[in-house]
Write a structure and sequence with these properties.
By secondary structure, the protein is of the alpha+beta class. The chain has a domain at about 90-200. Helices cover about 40% and strands about 15% of the residues. It contains 6 helices and 5 strands. The protein has helices spanning about 5-30, 55-65, 120-130, 140-145, 165-175, 195-200, and strands spanning about 45-50, 70-75, 95-100, 110-115, 155-160. The strands form 2 sheets. Strands 4-3-5 form a 3-stranded antiparallel sheet, with helices on one face. A two-stranded parallel ribbon has the order 1-2. β1 (about 45-50), α2 and β2 form a beta-alpha-beta unit. α1 crosses α2. The longest helix has 27 residues, at about 5-30. About 10% of the residues are buried. This is GIY-YIG domain-containing protein.
Length: about 200
């Protein structure tokens, strides 16, 4: 409570409640005088506050002599515990992700990012890897040179990020974290040097 003493807080609350009650009573009395059955009316004043264990007793003491009823409500709403019931998307259906493709025959791996579904990007990699000449990707070169295969059935989603700039930063970080990276050196040219010392401590 902003480091104020509890006695000061509750004394202030007490004064404020008395002021509110006084103003409310004046208004109610004015309203009652316009009604014929004013003598038969029973007026109840309620104060509703959030329940906090250990503090509720203090509030009871504050309103004890004020002729008011005190009620509490919980801060823990049901929707805090029960989220929307939606089926989780499979890795291949996710968008805006950083992904990792592992080689089945060695510890080499490749990290990339895409804003489209991962399924679409993986399909492009598969189509490209079938090439035997021309402008080959690093995955195609690895497969042709070593006759290795990639684990297309278990492409990992290592991070997800909606914004392109942040997604590229995450991609470069995960490229650096690989043990045997197939990515080009130029893939991390724009990674700020301040990240490098942190990454070195992680290895």
């Amino acid at each position: 409570m902003n480091d104020y003493p509890l006695d000061f807080i509750f004394n202030t609350i007490n004064l404020r409640l008395k002021s509110l009650l006084h103003n409310k009573t004046l208004k109610q009395n004015n309203d009652i005088t316009t009604q014929n059955d004013k003598d038969d009316m029973e007026i109840k004043t309620w104060f509703t506050i959030p329940y906090t264990e250990g503090i509720d007793g203090k509030f009871r003491e504050v309103v004890r002599d004020l002729d008011v009823n005190l009620s509490f409500y919980s801060l823990n709403k049901l929707n805090c515990f029960i989220g929307p019931q939606k089926d989780r998307l499979s890795n291949l259906q996710q968008k805006n992700v950083i992904y990792k493709i592992n080689c089945k025959d060695c510890d080499a791996s490749y990290v990339g990012q895409t804003k489209r579904t991962l399924k679409t990007r993986v399909k492009e990699h598969k189509n490209d890897i079938r090439k035997s000449n021309g402008n080959l990707s690093v995955l195609s070169e690895h497969r042709l040179e070593l006759n290795h295969e990639f684990d297309w059935d278990d492409v990992k989603v290592v991070d997800s990020e909606r914004w392109l700039y942040k997604r590229r930063i995450s991609e470069m970080l995960h490229i650096k974290l690989q043990n045997n990276s197939l990515n080009l050196q130029s893939d991390t040219d724009f990674l700020h040097h301040s990240y490098l010392s942190i990454l070195n401590n992680l290895h």
